Structures are given as structure tokens and as C-alpha cells.
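Subject: ArsR family transcriptional regulator structure
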Amino acid sequence: MPDGEGHPNVEEIELGPVLSALADPLRRRVVRELAAGPDGAARTCSSFGLPVSKATVTHHFRALREAGLIRQVDRGNSRMASLRRADIEQRFPGLLGIVAAEPEE
């Protein structure tokens, strides 16, 4: 059962929703940038500079969160996102390496 913030538990992370979330190039970009940072590092959602409206940024981060790829935490009037690296590696070993190795578009 997902926690109160919409994050699925590790055993609930399924390949279909993960691949669906990663199908979008902007969401892959977010995952790549988080994967390139230190383990457990969190960034504000606005720090990614996605070239879309605020509502669309919210949609992209919701898709990543609900798929189980990221964890989001409210910090004042901003939201921080971090990669669920250990959880994804446990469920789908090597997937993050594939995404991280993809050339920037």
C-alpha cells in the first residue's frame, strides 16, 4: 500500500508503470540528473529547469513519484525530489544504469 504521500512501497514498484514514466524524455532527464548526483541527494523540482509550465512539471514529478522512481518531500514552499536508487536497483537491477547512460537529447 502506498504511503500517505503517494510513494509505493518497494514491493509495489512494478515494471509497467516504471517504463511508462520513463517513456517521456523529460522524465528520463530528471532521473538521469538525479542518478548523476550523490546517492540520496535531493533537489527542488524547479532546479531541473524543465521547459514546460509549472502544471506540467507537477504532472511529470507525480508520474515519477507514483511509479516509485523518486521520493518527494515538502520543504517549506518547495518540494524536494530524490531518486529511490536502492529500491529501483532491488526491483530492476541495471535499469538506472541504462537510463543514466542514455545520451542527452
